[in-house]
User: Fold this.
Amino acid sequence: MPPEPFFAGPGIDRADALRNRPEAVAALLASPDARALAWDGGVPALDSMGALRWGEVRGDETLFLGLDNGAPRFATLPESVAGPEARSLLAQLDRDDAPLFAAALSLSSWHLRHGFCSVCGAASAMVRGGWARRCPSCDAEHYPRVDPVVIMLATFEDRLLLGRQPQYPPGRYSALAGFVEPGETIEAAVARELGEEAGIAVTDVHYLASQPWPFPSSLMIGCTATATGDALTIDHDELDDARWFSRDEVIAALAGDANAAFLPPPRFAIARTLLDHWIGDA
Ligand SMILES: [Zn+2]
Assistant:
């Protein structure tokens, strides 16, 4: 079975061909099926079942999110986006709505932080149904950021390398991760990050699955790699600790065993998907 990350879908029809036609977007906004995403304190509002809440459109919604079974879905740009609060909603978010939650959050966050042209400094304006900005002064177009992050499980003789970041809750260990840098392949970023953070060399880097992480705009690229040795040199500026765990230790942790060697990442983190896949449970 291929791994299925929390944000895997189904999502909605993004209808990108319509975005470039302002009259088509205006007609969709005026249609009786149109609905607007409800915001609550800078985060998308959820109902008691964890689904996104939708309300009547007011007519001034500027973000065209797409078509849900043909019904137009819009959002206003909120005054601010509350990242930590949004993150705390993931535990209750319905996974069917996770892609749209991520899109609305990342897109809004990008608009709020990119109001000015990065070429000439003039105030830019939203275009393409909210999926781009254009500068009226120099005509440059700017597109929403997606920041690639590699996150990987390195193995050595049926043991798995996991690490702890200082901000994790007590006992939690997870996959190591880091941003892909300009001029770098995914494979090179995996090898570099494992070298920098844990002091290991790896071969056989393989892609497994990806998911958006809208805090504010990461794309987590899940990979596996094979270590050439198990001696660790931990970068304590990045990590509290890193350790090799046996398959039995990982199985016990994922099963929620009270005596497990570590606390696993939550179900909405792709690290959890990678761990489930590694023990053959994905
Ligand atoms: Zn400009």
Residues 117, 119-120, 122, 135, 137-138, 140 surround zinc ion (CB under 6 Å). Residues 130 and 240 are 40 Å apart (CA to CA). DSSP finds seven helices and 15 strands in the chain. The first strand starts at residue 35 and ends at 37.
